[in-house]
UniProtKB/TrEMBL annotation:
This is ATP-binding cassette domain-containing protein. The lineage of its organism: Bacteria, Bacillati, Cyanobacteriota, Cyanophyceae, Leptolyngbyales. Keywords: ATP-binding, Cell membrane, Ion transport, Iron, Iron transport, Membrane, Nucleotide-binding, Transport. One of its GO terms (biological process) is iron ion transport. Residues 4-239 form the ABC transporter domain. It comes from Myxacorys almedinensis A.
Amino acid sequence: MKGLTTQNLSLAYDGTTIIQQLTVSIPTGQITALVGANGCGKSTLIKGLARLLKPSDGMVYLDGKSIVQQSTKSVAQQLGLLPQGPTAPEGLTVKDLVAQGRYPYQNWMQQWSDQDEKLVQQALEITNLVELSDRPLDTLSGGQRQRAWIAMALAQDTEILLLDEPTTFLDLAHQIEVLDLLHDLNQQGRTIVMVLHDLNHACRYADCLIVVKNGRIFAVGEPRSIMTEDLVQEVFNLECRIYPDPIANTPMCIPMGNKRTKN
C-alpha cells in the first residue's frame, strides 16, 4: 500500500499510553489536519508517524513497509518533518538551514552536487526566501522563519510532509501565509499532514480531518461531512454554532462562550 498508514498503533511515554490501538490511512496527495483538545495525542501521533517515537504496539507503514525496519536515510528521503518549535544554532543563515534538507542524500562517496544546489534554490524560490537566503535565521520574523523551516523540508524532496503546529505563535497574517504555502505545495503533488488548533483553518485548508480524543480517533472525513456542533461539544467540551464560511463555504465554528448576544 502506498503512502502512510498505521495498524493498531499504540504510542507511550514512560509507560503511559497516549495513542491507543489507532488504525488510519493518510490520504495520499491530500491535506490532512489532525485536530483535538490539548493533550489528546495529536503531536504524539505525528512523532509516531515520523518514527521519532517507537510504537509500544502496532505498526506504522510507509509505502507498505514497516517504518521502523527502514533505514533512517530511506525514511528521510520519503518523509519530511517540521517539528513543533524547531531551533537552529545561532547565526545559521537561511540557505545553510535549507541545505540541511539535503543531508539524507550525502555520503562519503557523494558530496554536495549540482542537484543538491538546484533543489535548495528551488526550495528558496517556492517559499519566497531567495532575497533572505544570506540572512541569519534569528533575524527573521516568525512567518519568515517558519517558511525557512518548510523550505528545509522541501529541499529533502519528499512526497510527504508532516508538520506539528506550523502556525503556532504566528500572528493571523503569517498563519495564512504559511497555510497558503502548504496549500500550494499540496497542489504540486505533496501529501501534507499537519496538527492545527484552529478548527476554522483546519476546515478551510484540509481535505480530510482526523479528530483525536483521548488517544483514539473520534472521527475521520471531509470537513463538511464531520464537523458538527455535536462533535465540537463532545471533543472540545464547547458549545458552538456551525455556519458556512462565507469565503470558502467550509464549516465555520463560532464558539458561544459566556458573552452571548441578545436576541
